[in-house]
Write a structure and sequence with these properties.
The longest helix is centred in the first third of the chain and has 29 residues, at about 30-60. About 15% of the residues are buried. Helix 2 crosses helix 4. The chain has helices at about 30-60, 60-85, 110-115, 125-130, 145-150, 160-165, and strands at about 20, 30, 100-105, 140-145. The chain is mainly alpha-helical and about 170 residues long.
Length: about 170
């Protein structure tokens, strides 16, 4: 007598323990290839509906979405600041709203373009620092005043330049 070979629900592929998917609603079995093909076909047929549903949900919950995104960005900034000292490396400013990440050796504009596709830093920079293990040698916290001061003063903060002139 021939051995019984299980096939998927669509009857197209042999079922093995490694490639079986059991549907939670009716217990039907499919191989993973047929499941993926079915999902791709369903998504293609319902793409416009799904996009409209998501847009409607977003519009109806816009304020909550904005608040959630704002809280996430602040959380990412606080986490980053904790890894780099929580205050300006030059003047000691500790107000979170004033603090930013500085590229110690310059090149911040090019680096931001590389990681985010734009000149904007902020959250994309915080996420990049986290995913790269919080590199310490090339980054520091500066307040906006010290960061801008370095930019317009040839890489030296006016605080540091002022103290360098003292005997």
């Amino acid at each position: 007598m021939a051995e019984h070979v299980a096939v998927c629900r669509n009857g197209m592929h042999e079922m093995t323990p490694e490639n079986v998917y059991v549907q939670p609603n009716d217990g039907g079995r499919r191989c993973l290839a047929c499941k993926q093909a079915h999902k791709a076909a369903w998504n293609a047929a319902h793409d416009d509906e799904e996009r409209a549903r998501k847009r409607e949900h977003h519009d109806a919950n816009r304020e909550q979405h904005i608040a959630r995104c704002r809280a996430l960005r602040l959380s990412n900034k606080i986490e980053t600041l904790q890894h780099y000292g929580n205050c300006c490396a030059c003047c000691g400013e500790a107000e979170i709203a004033f603090l930013t990440i500085d590229h110690v050796n310059g090149g911040g504009d090019a680096h931001r373009r590389q990681i985010s596709g734009s000149r904007r830093g902020g959250d994309s920079m915080y996420r990049w620092l986290r995913s790269n293990g919080w590199p310490q040698d090339d980054y520091q916290i500066l307040c906006f005043n010290c960061n801008q001061g370095r930019h317009v003063n040839g890489g030296i903060c006016p605080h540091a330049a002022k103290f360098a002139d003292l005997p």
